[in-house]
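Quick note —
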Amino acid sequence: MSDDQQIRLSLEQESDYAFRVSFEETDLDTLLTDEPPPLGQGRGPNPSRLLLASIANCLMASLLFALRKQRNQPGKLRVQISANMVRNAQGRLRIPQARVELLLPEGNETYQHLDRVLAQFEDFCIVTQSVREGMEVQVTVKDAHGNVLMGDKSFEAGA
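Predicted structure written out below.
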C-alpha cells in the first residue's frame, strides 16, 4: 500500500436529502444515504451515523490487526458506539464526543501480549486518529459552467 494513497468518492443527489455514494475505482455497490425525517425519509444512514460507523469499524479492525500481530486468533469481535449531538455556541449541531466499547469474545487470559495490543491498537486506526488530530477540509463550489464560486480559484483557466 502506498503511503500517498488517494481515496475518491462521488455523491449524486437522488431526491431531497437522499444521495447515492459511489466508491470510485472499486467494484463496490453504491450506498444510499439519507437524512432522517423531517428533512429526509431515513432510507439510509446519514453523515453523522456514517462518521460513527467509520470510527467504530476502524477501531475494531485495528484491534483485530493488533491481536493477530501478536499471534492471537480471537472469535468475532463486537463494538458499540454512541454519541450525543449538542448545539455549539452558534446553535449548530455537533458531535463533540463518541463513546466506543470494543467487546472481546474471550476472557483476557486467552490472549497473548494483551498489554502490548491494548497499548498500540488505537495508533493503527486511520479514522479515529485523523478525527482526533483534526483534519483540514478544503471546500470549492463550482457552477454548471465550471466557474469557481467559492474556494480555490487557481484551477480556473488563466488563473
